[in-house]
Amino acid sequence: MDRYKILAVDDDFASRLLLKKSLEHDSYVVSVCESGEKALELMQQEKFDLVITDLIMEGIGGLELMEEIKKKDPELSLILLTGHASIETAIESVRLGASDYLLKPINVDELGFRVKKALERIELERKLKDAQKNLTYSATIATANHEINQPLTVIISAIDMIKMEIEKLDLKNERLDNYLELLTKSSLRIANLLRKLREITSPKMQEIPYGVTMIDIDVGDNLGVKDRYVLVIEDEENLRQIIQKVLDSASYKVILAETAKEGIDLFRGDKKLIEAVILDFNLPDSDGLTVLRALQKIDPNVKVLLTSGFDVEESITEALKLGALDFVRKPFNRRQILSALEVVYSYHPKSKAKTSSK
Q1: What is the 3-state secondary structure (H, E, C) of 233-284?
Q2: Where are the beta strands (DSSP E) in 70-219?
Q3: In Å, how far from its chain's centre is CA 149?
Q4: Whole-prediction pTM
Q5: Among 43, 47, 56, 55, which Cα is nearest to 94's?
Q6: Domain range summary for the chain, segments of one domain joined by +
Q7: Contact at 8 Å (CB) between 52 and 6?
Q8: Domain 5-106 and domain 225-345 have a common topology
Q9: Which CATH class is domain 5-106?
Q10: Among 84-98, 155-169, 275-289, whose mean pLDDT is lowest?
């Protein structure tokens, strides 16, 4: 773990020097200052694990400093330095919340022992606090899973029932299919998030704007091939269906778009889930370069595989320079589209995009 940080407060220069040299010899990170006022200033600038302070000082003395520290950080440990004349006061300070006291003149071996014991108590308290936090977290997640999974199961089942009814009615509606696919995808994403939360044994906290603290959880989309979502932007219906069947057979999840506008809107709506885009270069409402730029504006790291049956070599070359990762010429077979898609998925930011031999 990180080295412990100790603040030593004493108005006597020789004592400060002895504390600093001795504690640094034991590999602690040590800051020193000459007054209680200066100690409070330093504590506003950085966090310490332990404060060692002289009891008798001009201005803010050791007891008053302890009271101020306890107001701001009740869990911070303190060791008071005192002479024999003030030992009763030092003992009373321990009852009031100080971790320990040490008699002056300072004995280096005794100092090391007292500091070590104080830090061991700190570590034990942290472990107990973490254990309590983990227990509370586990109970909360168990409750959330129970309360959310039940309605989530109903939602997923209802989506399947709607799909069955659409098939019975022989209703052909690409947009409706896309919306249902998005509902399914979002429901599965919620289920995956709940699973991720269940798997966390030691929750880590992260600060976000406006002073809000949240659980730090990676809900990224490295979910394996079976959970890879591909957006297909293709205006020809038969080809859309063929691509969907090919990708379905390889366990990809497919989202279909008929026009450039629809594809861009779908990508904007869930760019975190869609890992790759298969883009027809010639669409009725836009050209491939324009769509590519629009997708890159939404996500500069978007992975795009281009397709075209027209002679657009110059434009394809320009698109590849702009960041498209591969190109497949129509007509293509199952092996070609899946191989090209693997090239797209295996792309690393430091590697160069390749063009498949068609």
Answers
A1: ECCCHHHHHHHHHHHHHCCCEEEEECCHHHHHHHHHHCCCCEEEEEEECEEC
A2: 77-82, 100-103, 205-208, 212-215
A3: 23
A4: 0.44
A5: 55
A6: 5-106, 132-215, 225-345
A7: yes
A8: yes
A9: alpha beta
A10: 84-98
Beta carbons of 159 and 151 less than 8 angstroms apart? no
User: Cα dist. 101→30, 68, 126 in Å?
Assistant: 18, 18, 22
Q: Strand 274-280 relative to strand 304-308: parallel, antiparallel, unpaired?
A: parallel
Distance CA 46, CA 33 (A): 14
User: Residue 354: what pLDDT?
Assistant: 40
Handedness of CA 51, 57, 63, 65 (dihedral sign): negative
At residue 226 the predicted structure's pLDDT band, cuts being 50, 70 and 90, is: very low
The answer to whether 26 and 20 have CB atoms below 8 angstroms apart is: no
Strand partners, 215: 205
Band (86; pLDDT cuts 50, 70, 90): low
Residue 21 DSSP SS3: helix
Q: How sure is the predictor about 258, in pLDDT bands with cuts at 50, 70 and 90?
A: very high
**What was the pLDDT predicted at 225?**
46
Those residues whose C-beta lies under 8 Å from the C-beta of residue 358, and which sit 6 or more positions away, are: 327, 328, 329, 332, 336
Tokens representing 269? 């709506």
DSSP state of 99: S
| Cα 308–chain centre separation | 39
Largest Cα–Cα separation, the chain? 97
List strand residue ranges (DSSP E) for 107-228, in order.
205-208, 212-215
Mean pLDDT of 232-251: 88
CATH 3.40.50.2300 matches 225-345: yes
3-class SS at 224?
A: coil
Place of tokens 């950080």: 73
Determine the Cα–Cα distance for residues 253 and 274; give it in Å rounded to an integer: 9
Please tell me the distance from the alpha carbon of residue 300 to that of residue 208, in angstroms, as a whole number: 23
Average pLDDT over residues 335-351: 75
Phi then psi for 221, rounded to 5 degrees? -105, 20
pLDDT tens across 174-215, in order?
Answer: 888 888 888 888 887 787 777 777 767 667 666 555 555 666
